[in-house]
Amino acid sequence: MPARKRPARRPRRAAAKKARRSRVPRSINPNAQNASSIETIDVLSINPNRLYFNTFSLANFPRSSQIALNYKWYKAEYVEWEYTPLFTNFQADNAETNVSVPYMLQVMNRTQDSGAPADPALYKQFLQSQGAIPQKFTKKITIRYKPNWCSPGLMAFAREGGIGPLSQVASGGLTMNNGWLAAPGTGGTPGLVPEVAGTINGQGQANLNYAINLTTGTQYNGHTILIQQDNVGTNENVGVCDLVCRVKWVFKGPAPYFKVLRDPETVKQILT
Description:
mainly beta; Jelly Rolls; four-stranded antiparallel beta sheet; 11 strands; 8% helix; elongated
């Protein structure tokens, strides 16, 4: 039997060379560049029988304000308010002049309400009408939530005499927001953190009447509290507790590098 002929081998194809990929990425997702900080600040002691509107802004937090210079966007992820009573023991007796056990009443304030009764004797009823339940205040109380800021609706302006300077500004509607805010320095001096801070834990809302973009001064809301205590006298400086405010700030998006330089002359030398 004749031997079979083997089929001719096909010539091997040369292996295609893979294109060498550059190690330098063509683009970087700006949202992947982010940071966060948790900063705690001391607030003035709380006095009894007074309403407090708990608000804050980035300008109240110096370290986080400096971090924000390196990013385009920021927001407050959560806020913690820690109320620590100065006294925890109260003796019960029949005397009507002794200081009573303090009670805390609190309600959320998402819409920047600042109105209150003119008579302090109505403060308790003012909060209870909104659903506040008195809570005995003899140990530390921590309140934590996600804060919000508000934006106006349709703006209306009035001028003096129809052609003069603005005399009144009003908005139709108010919206609650939890989104990102523009970081400081986007339109100002490089490296400058505006020290425009709203009222934190104040008796009323801050009057932010400025003709600029208040990047660090955006007011975050909020809750309203009252610590009721009988027979404390008429001294307004009688403290009932200490308060600290702790906020977690988050940042994203890289900012132009020249924005964080301290010396404007150095910026000019780099860009020329």
